Amino acid sequence: MQFEAVRAHENGAKRQVTRLRWVRLGLETAAILALVDRALKREARHRAGLLATTTALAGVTMLDAWGAARQRSAVPVRLHATVTINRSPADVYAFWRDLKNLPGFLRHVEEIDEFDGLTIWRARGPGGLHLQWDAAIVADRPNERIAWRSLEGAGLDNHGSVTFLPGPRGRGTELHVDMGFDPPWGTLGAAVVKLLGEIPEQQLLADLRRLKQILETGEATASDASIHPGLHAARPPEPSSLPLVKGLVQS
Amino acid sequence: MKANCWYGKKQVRVEDVPDPKILNSRDAIVRVTSTAICGSDLHLYNGLMPTLEKGDVLGHEFMGEVVELGTSVTNLSVGDRVVVPFPIACGGCLSCEDGMFSLCENSNPNAWMAEKLWGYSPAGLFGYTHLLGGYAGGQAEYVRVPYADIGPLKVPEGLTDEQVLFLSDILPTGYMGAEMCGLTGGEVVAVWGAGPVGQFAIASARLLGAERIIAIDRLPYRLDLALKRGGATDVINYEETDVAEALREMTGGRGPDACIDAVGMEAHGAGAMYALDRTKQALMLETDRPLALREAIRCCKSGGVVSVVGVYGGLIDHFPMGAIVNRSLTVKSGQCHVQRYMRPLLERIQNGDLDPSFVVTHRLPLSEAARGYDMFLNREDGCEKVVLKAA
């Protein structure tokens, strides 16, 4: 029953994405025409830069048109990361399944609410962008696997799964996480996801390391330099710089 | 507080920096009483380890008094006198459970950097590059100690700082170097480098039953110390004597059963190979100069063990793999799993088997750290080990 409902939501979301794509294509074409018009009116020395911009925009638009014609989302992003945690699959599953724990280690997720198998995710995107979407838990096998998929109107179509395998010689849990994002805004959307400023797969691994630290040591580990964004002298930080870190436990 | 900070090649300065704070609930803040300059600090001083930042607080050999504790630390009290192991280890991951504390899987928040260089990340270390965590070091008045419920060892009354300070690194490191030789009694062991780690490797080889221990260095005062205090039975000055020939002669043509490299990436040497390695290192074509390691491999008995406790950071050239394969050599190495050795070695100190303070030649206030580095680097005034008094 629930699965059928998800399917219907997904089909609705796809139709909406296609509509958005054609609207965007129209706007971009208008923008290009306007730019070309300005370029022709300006002095020659300004033309090169404007023409380059115009060409780039036209390139993106053509790719968008190609994507829209194929009626599917452009360049999906697929991430995988794995880590071994010295706690039983039951412990790791229970921690993950309590979704309010996820923002504690998934750096971009701010909050997750759950009711009746539906979840509401709030996340931070690039450039201070705030995203919110609904997702359904589409698989839930205790101590083995959890999978989720965003519903219609998610803004960022996405799905994911986490698998809990017993570790070597019965010690710990091998955690395998897969996440997929299908950016709605064509090639440019995918580029934005790619250019979050970091390497998304490495970021996912960093998130899982924080989960490992929380489960094995009680909290995410901080070093003097790691609590600053970017490289910074390894010396005790000024008190004013401390609140920059999310989830940093201070006693 | 005052702390010794790195500013570039051969530039360290004691500066005013913010006091450390409790960041995790298992942290402690320790007021440092004694801290030492390690041979591996000289690799940082010489700018040979990547990912050091201007302003980094150095130092990973230190001890002192607990002045503040995070809410989760219940086995220590404010006022306890502790020695702190240089690898930061959580005690809860699979590596820590297996006693491989320097491979702690949780203590390096910059694990991704170490993975780029070495494949996987080892533990974070105090004051030893960002690639190994970016933790402020202990050449300071105060230091934050993570996982304080696992690492720090309470010092029993009646022992001086200098008797126990080296439990933080060089004594266990030298001991592990000897332990990796798999001694059962009666062996011949050759030790390259008669610096403090070499001295403790020699002393440990003796404790573990080696019959003949040969110290190899170029500095007469270090070789003297190895003979008189470390427990070496023989010494070779490689600037005067061909090491391979001498070892062959001393062992009836067999070679030493085990060879310990207590030198690492900045070996000195003689001849064309030394000049070549030195040039390549200066041009960044090779990160480490493995002269002692090559010689240890070449000199080791067929079927013997080469134990490497000298620090290497990256890549070496002309590694004699053919000798290892064709002569069934075993090469063992590792940053010391200090937490594993602290208690047993403390007992050795308490019952008089060992007094590690014999390596100390210079005592300076923390404010003179720069002079200490310079003196240690240039082996001035018979310098073997510099202890900085922070309080």
Strand composition percent of chain A: 15-25%
Specify the biggest β-sheet of chain A. Answer: 7 strands, antiparallel
Element-level helix/strand string of chain B: EEEHEEEHHEEEHHEHEHEHEHHEHEHEHE
What order do the helices and strands of chain A follow?
HHEHEEEEEEHH
Report how far the terminal alpha carbons of chain B are from each other.
12 Å
Which parts of chain B are unreliable, with pLDDT below 50 for 5 consecutive residues or more?
Answer: none
The overall pLDDT of chain A, averaged over residues, is 72
Mean pLDDT across the residues of chain B is 96
Please give the count of helices of chain B: 13
Structural category of chain B: alpha/beta
Task: Describe what this molecule looks like in 3D.
The complex is a heterodimer of chains A (251) and B (391). Chain A has 5 helices and 7 strands. Chain A is of the alpha+beta class and 251 residues long. Chain A has a 7-stranded antiparallel β-sheet, sandwiched between helices. In chain A, α1 runs antiparallel to α2. Chain A is globular, with a radius of gyration of 22 Å. Mean pLDDT of chain A is 72; it is low at 1-21, 31-73 and 243-251. Chain B is α/β, with parallel strands linked by helices. Chain B has helices spanning 39-45, 94-97, 111-118, 161-164, 170-179, 196-207, 220-230, 243-250, 272-282, 291-299, 321-326, 338-350, 369-377, and strands spanning 2-8, 11-16, 28-37, 61-69, 81-84, 87-88, 124-125, 142-145, 153-154, 188-192, 212-217, 234-237, 258-261, 305-308, 330-333, 362-365, 386-389. In chain B, the strands form 4 sheets. In chain B, strands 3, 4, 5, 8, 9, 16 and 17 form a 7-stranded mixed β-sheet that branches. The mean pLDDT of chain B is 96. Chain A binds chain B through residues 84, 86, 167, 171-172, 202, 205-206, 209, 212-213, 216-219, 221-227, 231-239, 242, 248-251, and chain B through 3, 5, 17-26, 51, 53-57, 70-72, 90-94, 97, 105-107, 109-112, 124, 127, 130, 133-137, 144, 146-147.
